[in-house]
Amino acid sequence: xxxxxxxxxxxxxxxxxxxxxxxxxxxxxxxxxxxxxxxxxxxxxxxxxxxxxxxxxxxxxxxxxxxxxxxxxxxxxxxxxxxxxxxxxxxxxxxxxxxxxxxxxxxxxxxxxxxxxxxxxxxxxxxxxxxxxxxxxxxxxxxxxxxxxxxxxxxxxxxxxxxxxxxxxxxxxxxxxxxxxxxxxxxxxxxxxxxxxxxxxxxxxxxxxxxxxxxxxxxxxxxxxxxxxxxxxxxxxxxxxxxxxxxxxxxxxxxxxxxxxxxxxxxxxxxxxxxxxxxxxxxxxxxxxxxxxxxxxxxxxxxxxxxxxxxxxxxxxxxxxxxxxxxxxxxxxxxxxxxxxxxxxxxxxxxxxxxxxxxxxxxxxxxxxxxxxxxxxxxxxxxxx
Length: 385
Prior knowledge:
It comes from Nonomuraea phyllanthi. This is homocysteine desulfhydrase. GO terms for molecular function: homocysteine desulfhydrase activity; methionine gamma-lyase activity; pyridoxal phosphate binding. Its cofactor is pyridoxal 5'-phosphate. This protein is an alpha/beta fold. The protein has 15 helices and twelve strands. Helix 11 packs across helix 15 and helix 13 crosses helix 15. Helices cover about 40% and strands about 15% of the residues. Strands 1-7-6-5-4-2-3 form a seven-stranded mixed β-sheet, with helices on both faces. The protein has two domains: about 240 residues, Aspartate Aminotransferase, domain 2 (3-Layer(aba) Sandwich), CATH 3.40.640.10; about 130 residues, Aspartate Aminotransferase, domain 1, CATH 3.90.1150.10.
């Protein structure tokens, strides 16, 4: 099935929509039944039946069906935040005494959650590349977690190679695919067991919702939906699900524009004397560019540059001089955003991820590329000594 059709029309012509061009938002928290027997059967299958908002409802279910189809997965489960999806997914796969391998740099709160799990007897080890996994794996290792492109550094992981290695050793693989969206990369087709996303980013696309999703086979999604999803309480609201559905309708068009503008800005920065490096997988100079071309069909507009400085003050001055890039966290909306981990992330986390002081993250939005390039050029000239 064509991705654009999935984004725009999958499930929207069914009888329950009553011909509405925007699928109805089911606001009710409770669904009732014709008999006690029917209620009992529904509760036993609450991951698929409409019983109570905390389980699922028709609006959320439509968003889940679209996301599963886009990722070429059997099922999807939407959460009230990206971390809701990540924490529930990891928790569903490990028990006390288990060990998690983390490959490359991953989202900071994911690392914090893994540290939190240590109080329950779950340990983890960060490794820089697949070669280090051979020495870091233990008899108790159950899970390999990674992102590609990686957090902040945007290194590219050879997904098929990593999943092949993990499968030979009996490990479950979980990958965060938020950077690429399901349009530009489909990890499940390359052997990943479960894929997670923050729906707050490109999929939502308008900086007006917080949500997450996990996609994969029913054998892994169903137990997660019946336990961690229910018990953690990170349910997605039907209103946020409706925003996901609307975001998906324009996702193909927006991602094409993000790719074009992001590459234009990255190419400008790659030739600037005040910039040591530009970490964008779409640039031919990127170490993982060849692998990216093999496993991705496009590039988003989130990347980082490394300023030619070791001064946090100069990094801050660069951010302050920007006029069109707004200072803030998150990414994937219309507006262009800038953030610098050295100014906000605890030093131990930065050290674990190998993030230098001069690293600056850019989320290139949908404003004209020329305007953004002029803004960056003026800030670089005026902030670094």
